[in-house]
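> tool_call: predict_assembly(chains=three)
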Amino acid sequence: MKEKDLYQILEESLPHAVIEEREMLIIKVDKEKYLDTMKFLKDLKFDLFIDLFGTHYPATKEIEVIVHLYSTYRIKRIRIKCRVPEENPTLPSIYNLWNGADWFERETYDMLGVRFEGHPDLKRILTPAGFEDHPLRKEFPFRGKIPRKEKYHPEDKRFVEGEFWF
Amino acid sequence: MGIEIEVEKLSGQGIIVGNLKKITRWARKNSLWPFPFATKCCGIEFMAVVGAHYDLARFGAEVVRFSPRQADLLMVAGTITYKMAPVLKTIYDQICEPKWVIAIGDCASSGGYFDTYSVLQGIDKIIPVDVYVPGCPPTPESIITAVMKIQNLIDEGKVLRSYERERPLPNP
Amino acid sequence: MLKESSGSEMKEGRMIINIGPSHPSTHGAFRMITEIEGEVIVNCEVEIGYVHRGVEKFAENLKYKQILPLTDRLNYVSAIMNNIGYVTAIERYMKIDVPKKAQYIRVILNELSRISDHLTCIGPNVVDIGALTPFWYFFRERERIYEIIEMWTGARLTTSYPWVGGLWRDHPWVGGFKDEIPSEFEKKVRSFLKTMKSAIDDVETLLTGNRIFIERTKGIGVMPAEKALEYGWTGPCLRASGVAWDLRKVEPYMCYEDFDFEVPVGENGDTYDRYLVRMEEMRQSMKIIEQAIDGIPEGPIMTSDPRVSLPPKKEVYNTIEGLIRQFELVMYDIQVPEGEFYYAVEAANGELGFYIVSDGTGKPYRFRIRPPCFAIYQAFPYLVKGMRIADLIAVLGSINIIAGELDR
């Protein structure tokens, strides 16, 4: 009963979005309506903020940002997906709606390069300072760009065997 | 144990005469002060070694010091990333001579299971290592064996530092 | 945040203290930069990333079976819970039936890991506050848990034991579960339950009514319930703030609905409540283990679903279908159908979720882990404002940060 209501509520109030249901309700929105959808969902009492991350699809030259929310009143999960273009990706930040989006947005910026407008302090969080690439993009090699030796040879080890006088 | 002592009886007083090097080495090896630099799962095995079941205190290494100026054995347990490497080098430089280094676990010896863009493949690229302990994570008995090997090194009066150096690749 | 305040407008009497990545009371490698005035903390900034190994990027090149050892190096004090989270996510997506015997044994190992995690949280936490004795009692119990886990899975710490469809293999030398003479495993678990009860009772008499402990932990690090939900807190920290939320009761998985247990909920959300919630959760976990070991059913230990399990040897040697199935499963690993899914379990710290996008080949296209500590730790500057440095250490221990899970 309640589930039908929620599905119907979403269908009526978000006509621009594509809604489907698999293991949880999934909403697909465009970049322009992203912030309005989030405000609407916050008023619908989706209070537990679960996750925010992104995936890179080089085939269509897009990055997809995914948000997971949970409602402790209706006991329902929901997933919001939003696609942004690969070059210069930006999205409005939802830090003012849920404070928990803070570090998740910083991590998405670090790993994929998506800039969130309105975030108080967007800087790198997991990679070292001065790291310039975005590791989770598909063209970044998982071994990294620092050159490494291919094989190990027994002559590579150098022993400094010495005595100490005391 | 190897100390040759001669007890000279001088009307009731006992005097021990021995070799200065042997006595100081005996004292040094039985009172090692370890500095645990634990970042990951091998740190939990290190905590189990210091615990009551596998007791490290019976080898004299009971006082676990958290300041590098007060320690002489650096035990690196866990993955070292490129972000953590300068911290490790600073700590190694701050320990006073003589010092020994144990690399516990696969990640500290050679990068281990993680062959990725942010993991340093072995700490012997930045600091010299005396004893390597393999395992993921190693059993506490292996860690105790490593401490005993350090004690043997001290007995012989050696430091055994191994680096990894860049060797020019052969012509293809 | 700190940059603006410390650059040109640094007021008189303020000092910046760096509680660095290598510090005796940080359990893990992370850095806290605190700006203090006298001894009162005005501002605090947190820096993580010292153990970042790139697990999510690495998993895109591995097959599903090779990702299993990666998952149990996330939260390394309770390794089996991460394995079970990963394995139940794939099982729920592919709709595979797991036999009851395997589920009961998984529940026993799961709850033992949860007890081990809470012991590792409370032990060092009270050491930082100043009480050294509970640490020794708890670590003696942890050794007993390690012995039980080693007897069943073969490894102490990083087990990689459950697999899709059940468990790897049965242990005939351990004995049947319905024999008159109880097996080694059952004897060890029952004796563990007795000694654990006396250890918890001892520590409770030492700490729970202790005036010094109460003064040091009551009212410190208070998190109100609405703020906790906004920040994304789950697990015992959320329950200590007053929200009754446990994924074992809300979305039951792995036959938790067969067991009868309660979920403790706190009132104020301070450090004392978090300690009490964890102690009570350990007692409830012991109750679950007792019910599970009393009622293990008979049956196979691995499903016979042809998508994931190897056929019996008779079929492999005698029929052609068995041979083909064995060959495909060994060479090409399990084939997860195309699509995306997200499933979560209740780990010791909160909600551990796995989001996998599969594109039909044997390797995942995107592998995402939702770490519980990440959401909890980002509220740390909010928790410590206006407190002293000694209180900061007490709060840090009570929210149970594991650096491997934070940085992945």
